[in-house]
Amino acid sequence: MVELGADTDTLTHFQELLKGHLTVDTAAFTQNGHEHWHSNLPWFWSMDIPRDTTSKCWLTEFYQIHWLQAKACKDRWAEEEELLNMEFQWVINFFKYHTRKWNDQYLAYHAVGMCSAACYAAWQQVVYDQLSEQGESKWQAINEDYNRDSTEICCQ
User: For a 10 Å CB count at each end of the chain, is N or C smaller?
Assistant: First the structure.
């Protein structure tokens, strides 16, 4: 437009079109993408060609749809985080349950004098106890709000 000799009013209305304005950012169209929160539309999407800025409902609708998609994505990630936290607690509870179960088996076998079965039950109790301790230590390392007593709340 500069080479065509456009006036200053036209040049201020139409900015220079750069190669970066024409690239397609696929993250903006990815449902689960979370790296497009800072992306903006190029200037020509919001440009007022017919000079009727009062009736830009199509652009408002575009931003509303984009915002709703971003909110839905955020909500899905929050739900997924909540489920992962619960599943982690369920696994620890599973290990603790089996620790108690094998302890009961050990006591029953030991009471009737079945030494080999009692030895196996004691071994299983140690295995599950170690698994629950490892799970709790990993959970404690990644979660500052962890309380050891709260693991037994779900699914006893």
Answer: C
> How far, in Å, are 10, 36, 48, 111 from residue 53 at the CA level?
16, 26, 6, 87
Structure tokens at 23: 């690239």
Q: Tokens for 40?
A: 């903006």
Backbone dihedral region of 36: left (phi > 0), alpha (psi from -120 to 50 degrees) or beta?
Answer: alpha
**Half-sphere CA count of 93, side-chain side, radius 13 A:** 14
pTM of the complete model: 0.54
Nearest to 103 by CA among 126, 134, 136: 126
- What is the pLDDT at residue 139? 87
Between helix 57-112 and helix 115-142 the angle, nearest 10°, is: 150
Q: What is the pLDDT of residues 23-50, one digit of tens each?
A: 655 554 555 555 555 556 665 565 555 5
- Is 35 or 92 the better-scoring residue by pLDDT? 92
